[in-house]
Amino acid sequence: MLLPKMHIEEGWFVDEYGRRVLLRGVNFTASSKLPVSPDESTHVKTDFREHRSVSFIGHPVPLEEAEEHFSRLKHWGFNTLRFLITWEAIEHAGPGEYDTAFIDYIEKLLKIAGEHGFYVFIDPHQDCWSRMTGGDGAPGWTFEKVGIDFTKFHDAGAAWLMQHNYDPGNPKAYPAMTWAQNRVRFGCATLFTLFLGGRDFAPSCVIEGQNVQDYLQSHFIGAFKQVAERTKDMPHVLGFDSFNEPSVGFIGLKLDGSNMDSRESLGYSFTPIDAMLTGSGFTRTVPYWEIKLTGLRETRRDEINPGKISCWLDGCEDIWKREGVWGLDEKGEPVILQNDYFFVKNGREVDYLRDYLSPFICRFAQELRSVNADTVILYEGPAEMMLKGKVIEWPLPENAVNAPHWYDFPTVGFNRFMCRVSYDYVQGRLLLGGRAIRKAFARQMAGLKALAERFSGGGPSVVGEFGLRYDMEKKKAYRKFRDNPHKAWSSHVKALSWYYDALDANLLGSCQWNYNPENNNEWGDLWNLEDFSIFSRDQQSAGWKEDINSGGRAIEGFCRPHFVAVAGTPLTMEFDMKKGTFLFEFDGDASIKAETLIYVPAIQYPDGYDVTVSEGDVERRDEEQLVLMRIHRDGPHTVKISRKAK
Fold first, then answer.
1. Same domain, 106 and 45
2. Which of 533, 558, 583 is the last residue of a domain?
3. Which of 504, 535, 558 is the last residue of a domain?
4. Residue 513: which of 84, 90, 133, 61 has the closest Cα?
């Protein structure tokens, strides 16, 4: 399938025929965070000593399985992939040592994706810097280059690792969704600070003649330029995300934590000085936060690093001590020397977005566009902060796409669909009743879309991640699935339909998190007990090869009618799943000769459907689940699709 070329115009992706295109996609896939060989799923114990010899070939999916998975996703109405690749997958062997066999594999897989009709964004994915710090992303040698021994992280409390903390007999030993606390621990926070702000905050850290910031950024960008070289002649590869969910490190924080919100994540809440000192071999007492009925609450305080283990390699000095951030008093006890070290620089308060993240994104864009001038750059920042109205400066490159992430945090946190009582994290108030909750979702999505007007001149917006845990209520759906596969997903279907209602109300493109061919009921997405995949082999029937939907989870929640490409400007789109009524209104442009395309999935219309249009010729292609409409006049047009009565 030869996809039309696209460009950005007036807040939309527009194809070569002049049609505005809705990017409705999925993240492909969570397994890309992990090596294939050796198997380093996070429930497998490891000290990461083999980090230089790993291979990611086969993630996200073996080439021989690509046809199956891409065909299924296309059948479900997706036309876009946010395609995960980690820095480690490309450059794990050492600085400048690229895994060309992996890049060959990725090139072949991306060509197959294009043949199946997918637009692609490459996502340089990371969470909490690296696998060694409880997430994924960067190669292990990035720690060694700055003098850090990541094999000491667990014992020192410098990282929160499922590989060491998980206990099947004690769910509280490693609760799901606690991996994010790594952002404030020593390993992740130190490397992010060096990566984005090394010139300002660690001027003494020089690697091979370069400041650590320039050294790390050059290698990160160099790795993804290898991918850009292979994709520059693939028009369906639209561009690159700049950095997935970037962390602030210590930037903008006071050492004592006095300007931090300690309730940002579940688990232990470190201040910057706690993180630094545990990494340097000191014991610190740190509060622990859990979700209670009344919200996040501190439930205890524990000693971290009681064994006083330092994570600095022998002969390597603590960078932060060397920079005079902290020191020892006359009794040999650690003390803060510069509480505002990461908060004030050159006489003014630092601004993480303006001073550090933005310059990196602009550099990344410039370097990638030296390979392909048409490369689109996606950006994301701290959406919650911006939605709450904080005035910020954020210079961005041209041709940039707003790609914020959005999650229904109460549902994710409590692990059940909060459809009666929820919490609006933007307005800071309880939401009572489904109507109020749904309005809040739509309002939040509208706020995310408005960020494009503020920061990228009204460019397009694509929600880069949103999704739902499938192991809700202690994996209740998996037990019900054995007896009643359809009703097992009722809560999930309802939740997803509300999320997509909010997206449709704002005419937003989106990429759901995620599709994972390796997901299973026991370990979820194989990464830190997350279980967000819309597909699992464990939900496939014996005759799955004859049923393209087999293995899908809560399909009715996300597989729903929507416009794909429109000859004009979209105005409104809504779908009533219960009634089976789809309404689409647009301002037609008759000078565009290509048809308006509407996806109409059979799963929502098992007994067929009727199409009513205000004007124009209609063609149905039921095998492709498409309705084609050719208009003859400018102005308002309406398309209505309704279920046929049984």
1. yes
2. 558
3. 558
4. 84
* Rg for the chain, CA atoms, rounded: 25
Q: What is the DSSP letter of 440?
A: H
71 and 135 together in one domain: yes
In the predicted structure, residue 412 carries a pLDDT above the cut 90: yes
Can you tell me the distance from the alpha carbon of 168 to that of 160, in angstroms, rounded to the nearest whole number? 17
Reply yes or no on whether the pLDDT at 383 is more than 90.
no
Q: Would residue 600 count as lying in a domain?
A: yes
Q: Which of 88, 380, 465, 556 is catalytic?
A: 465
Considering the domain architecture, whether residues 432 and 506 belong to the same structural domain is answered as yes
Residue 521 within any structural domain of the chain: yes
Could you read off the pLDDT of 631-642 as tens digits, one per residue? 999 999 999 999
Considering the candidates 40, 88, 91, 245, report the single residue annotated as catalytic.
245
Cis peptide before 601 (omega within 30 of 0): no
| Residue reference for tokens 């709450």 | 388
d(CA 310, CA 327): 15
Identify the pLDDT of residue 142: 98
Please give the single-letter amino acid code of residue 309.
Answer: I
Instruction: Say whether both 73 and 14 belong to one domain.
Output: yes
What does the pLDDT read at residue 427? 87
Residue 185, CA atoms < 13 Å, CB-side half-sphere: 34
pLDDT at 294: 62
Query: Is 380 noted as a catalytic residue in this protein?
Result: no
Q: Residue 364 is which amino acid?
A: F
> Does any domain span residue 230?
yes
Domain-located, residue 337: no
> Measured on CA atoms in the order 140, 145, 151, 157, is the torsion positive or negative?
negative
Provide the domain limits for residue 367. 6-254+347-558
Q: Give tens-digit pLDDT for 450-477.
A: 988 888 888 899 999 999 999 999 999 9
Residues 488 and 586 in one domain: no
543 and 579, same domain (yes or no): no
pLDDT digits (tens, 9 = 90+) for 480-522: 998 898 899 999 999 999 999 999 999 999 999 999 999 999 9
CATH number of the domain to which 173 belongs: 3.20.20.80
Which of the residue ranges 315-324, 420-429, 519-528 would you say has the lowest mean pLDDT? 420-429
Q: Is the distance from CB of 602 to CB of 547 less than 8 angstroms? A: no
Cα-Cα-Cα-Cα dihedral of 128, 132, 137, 142, to 10°? 110
At 273, list the tokens: 């000085």
Q: What is the pTM of this model?
A: 0.97
Number of domains in the chain: 2
Q: Is the pLDDT of residue 264 over 70?
A: no
- Told to judge if 67 belongs to the known catalytic residues of this protein, a careful annotator would answer no
How confident is the model over 85-128, as pLDDT tens digits?
Answer: 999 999 999 999 999 999 999 999 999 999 999 999 999 999 99
Alpha-carbon gap, residue 607 to 645, rounded angstroms: 7
How many whole angstroms separate alpha carbon 146 and alpha carbon 142?
7
429/575 same-domain check: no
